[in-house]
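User: Thanks for the earlier help. One more: Alpha-catulin. Can you show the sequence and predicted structure together?

Assistant: Of course, both are below.
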Amino acid sequence: QITTLINHKDKPKRSDKTLQAIQRVGQAVNLAVGRFVTVGEAIANENHELKEEMSVACVEARRAGETIAQLTDVASLDHPESDSHITIFTDKTGVVKAARLLLSSVTKVLVLADRIVIKQIITSRNKVLATMEQLEKVSSFQEFVQIFSQFGNEMVEFAHLTGDRQNDLKDEKKKARMAASRAVLEKCTMMLLTASKTCLRHPDCESARINKDGVFHRMRLALEQVIEIVTDSRPNGENEMAPISIYSGIKEFKNKVEGLRENLYFLSKENLSTMLEVILEHTEDFTDSAYTSHEHREHILELSKQAKMELEQLVSVWMQAQNQKTKDLMEDLEVAILKTCQCMNELKREVHSAATSLAADLLKYHTDHMVLKALKITGVEGNLEAVAEYTCKLSEQKEQLVEMCRLLRHVSGTEPLEITCIHAEDTFQVTGPQIISAAETLALHPSSKIAKENLEVFCEAWESQLSDMSLLLREINDVFEGRRGEKRVYLSLPRPGKHNANLKALKPVKLDTEEQAKIAKLGLELHLLTSEVDSETEKWEDQENEIVQHGQGMSSMAYSMYLFTRGEGLLKTTQDLFHQAEIFATEGTKLASALHALSDQVRDDDKPLLLLEAEKLISMCKQLQATAKASAQGKSATFTKVDACILKTRNVMTLLCQLLPLCCKLLRKNKAGNGCLKPAPPWKEDRIRTGTNARTPERRVETFGIKSLENHVTNMTFLESK
């Protein structure tokens, strides 16, 4: 709304419609500020330590909103420019100043509210820690039952607060770390219950004490990590140094190599050599692992050697090109770049295969949980020798699974999945010894029901983590295949032979290195256009708009076509590419229909331009569809067809980059001219309505209210009281 006012262009003639629209926008801003400030003032009253700062910011915001309303009060003026009344037309700088003050004060309110939420989480954590200290010291069941009941309530409150915070985090890495810490706390709460009860029942048992201490230690670490994420700090000012994975190392290395196309001087050859050395150093995790197959080890060593050779060749041509930029040298450089990148892709594929095949084999082998079952049976029998034998087997299994997690982290593909792998590794490292101490306790007290229950809880945690690993493995494979991750990829790709009987006779063809080199520039242009389209779609307020959705779909398909030019992604053959081009053209035609529908809503003087662009889009999509469906026999003809499809796709994307901002502008213009303002209900009504309908947008008001969470825990019961 503020942007609409600031960007308003002065015109000599102002219609009544324009004056009314400006006044409505001004009133809308003022009313929105009023609602926002009311919530801010409520927060101030509930938090005395920040009351003064919050109140000042609220007063500033309210004053700015009222100023904007006064300056836009122009609808009743027949000749606003000649009137003594100051308006947006006579003092536009006043609106700019008020807008700046408003945005500044609103930001202050938000920052102060955020500080309050952080303080709430820290206070809740401190309460949990204090109660945990009491739980560690209890010596009777009755006292334990009372304190654990209080602990359960506090943990539920902490879970609600941190859950809301996790949803609000924008950084996916922090989100994954928060999810991992909260998962630890959730599982450890039940472990703490049974481990503490076992220790109380058998106070002289050393293995029971070790088991309980392990749970308390892990919970404290998880609580500390939550606070680190929430406050964005590290203990003693340390910087978080996450180990670099092979996947991310290769991605960065390839980006640098491909950057040589644009600039021959932006980095040194030593930088590239160091980057490759780091990647190859990490591959030693695979070649040194006892669990990597001989075949995978040999392939990784071979590809590592080849990568060094390709880089040497690249550096040689690159140095020559710096001294003398001839056409032949630049072509040689392009081939060297492609060969280096192709070698790195093959290395990435090989380590991925090594890690995921090991994971699949281990998870399949351990699905029967034979060792855990044997520990439970021998523990109940009191057979200490057999328990010792099976704990050795469990330790071996733990080492295998920890190694599996380390290797999977290298090929996980995204930072959140890397963090999930690290969390899984920690879980196996910690839970293994805890199962062993719980089994030893049961073997020493075979008739103890609580010791048996305690072992069950830890075994369930192990089984649950194994089950989670199967899901994690599937996600890692999805990212590698381009089905999810950092960039959307269009999934409705018809596979060859599925929708067209004639395709069965066609032999799938891949581009060779030379063809990839020829088409690389075109692919790069397509990549840049997809980024531009994504940037434009993000500017739309209504992400559900049909035009936005078609635009996003087309961008995603164009991106998969760009990946094809690099020999990556879901499109494996030229036939896949041609099918994708057909689907892309169909999506473009649907977008043209949406543009026609939009033309019926806009003003008459805007309609011709929009219809003209829609006709252009239809024509381009028809040409692309005809090209994609045309037959091509032989290698040369097929490559020509690939080139034509990508070229025509690029042209459509170029037009799309022009269409999206045009449509966005027309919709905003239309909204400003025809929008109607509903009076805002009082703040108290909002809060009452929030309680009855959690799905309404007003629910955000409640989250600002900073109220106690006692009502969430009334039905919570953790204990049997025996």
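User: Great, one quick takeaway?

Assistant: The first helix runs from residue 2 to 6.
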